[in-house]
Amino acid sequence: MVRHASHGDIGSRLSGRLPDLPLTADGQAQAQALARGIAAEAPDAVQSSPVLRAQQTAAAIANACGLHVETVDALQELDFGDWTGREFKALDGDPEWEFWNTHRSQASAPSGESMKAAQDRAYAHFRAVAEDFRGKTLVMVTHCDIVRALVAAILGLTLDNLLRFDVDPASVTRVEAGEWGARLTGLNERFA
Hints:
Elements: E1 2-3, H1 25-39, E2 45-48, H2 52-65, E3 69-71, H3 88-91, H4 95-102, H5 115-132, E4 138-142, H6 144-155, E5 171-178, E6 181-190
Parallel strand pairs: 1-4, 2-3, 2-4
Antiparallel strand pairs: 5-6
Helix pairs in contact: 1-2, 5-6
């Protein structure tokens, strides 16, 4: 699993599913470093969230690997509803935002998606591709909360603990899967 590279809103605004948010120059450099590192491992396929920043990151990887990008809705960013596009400093102190960040297993974004719903759709896809790509390597380019949700599902963690580990831009989280289940083999690895 790969979190997309940096865009202009990282750390300042909750971008969510905003459509036209491209990678910054630094993000493009991160994507190229990521692509070189991943290409050395010769993956068999590249899938991506439909969001532009993920698509651009996936395209860099796919180009370096001689592959094409398959767009997969299950890898889509969480729908943050009314919070989409809001600055983090404006959300600080909002009781709903505080509840969201401490009780993700119970909370939903206002007019948006619950963390559990996002986890369910992403994990269902993960299980399906684990079967389809048996013995192969698949790169899935997605978003921070989706990577966190998948790690939580694989490790059996409650969604309330998602903020206890980092998933940085342009980072790789590695998972092995088989009939026996799945296990985490790397978290938040960087090539740059």
